[in-house]
Design brief:
The protein is an alpha+beta fold and 154 residues long. It has one domain (12-150): Peptide deformylase (Peptide Deformylase). Helix content is 22%, strand content 32%. It is built from three helices and eight strands, in the order αβββββββααβ. The protein has helices at 26-41, 123-136, 141-144; strands spanning 46-48, 58-61, 69-80, 83-87, 95-101, 104-110, 116-122, 146-150. A five-stranded antiparallel β-sheet has the order 1-2-3-6-7, with helices on both faces. The radius of gyration is 14 Å and the shape is globular. Zinc ion binds at residues 89-91, 131, 135.
């Protein structure tokens, strides 16, 4: 595995609508592993492929170092409730802001071995899924956050 360079706000790859993954193979799994390594090295809880310069619909999430989710072509199929909380992003170093997200979501995706799956999530996992899916549509949290502060988590 290898730590990749993280693209930061201003890089055009972060503004793209990413394309669907069509082929799930060893090469894709290697990318997912490298994304995970990059995320862990930066102490993030989620990372989307465009953040390492690859504009495809793939996301890795691990909020508690207990379970890693590799989401390929994720689609949020259900949202419930709304909650405002502080967020940051590996592509926006040292920036934090309040973002309103659904409290609960259901997400449909393909696994790294090509299986269709749907899970329900709430709390931080739900927030993280919504943040990462936004990345796949070229949207950064700073585009929608309020009370953006620099340097420390509010
Ligand atoms: Zn992010």
């Amino acid at each position: 595995m290898a730590v990749m360079e993280i693209k930061t706000a201003g890089d055009l790859v972060l503004k793209q609508h990413c394309s669907e993954v069509e082929k799930i193979d060893k090469r894709l799994r290697k990318l997912l592993d490298d994304m995970a390594e990059t995320m862990y090295a930066s102490e993030g809880v989620g990372i989307a492929a465009p953040q390492v310069g690859v504009p495809i619909r793939a996301v890795v999430i691990d909020i508690d170092k207990k379970k890693r989710y590799d989401l390929i072509n994720p689609v949020i199929t259900y949202r419930e409730g709304s909650v405002i909380d502080s967020e940051g992003c590996l592509s926006c170093p040292n920036l934090f802001g309040d973002v309103e997200r659904a409290e609960k979501v259901r997400v449909k995706y393909t696994t790294r071995f090509g299986k269709e799956k749907e899970i329900e999530a709430e709390g931080l996992l739900a927030r993280c899924i919504q943040h990462e899916v936004d990345h796949l549509n070229g949207r950064l949290f700073i585009d929608i956050a309020k009370n953006i502060t620099r340097g420390k988590k509010s």
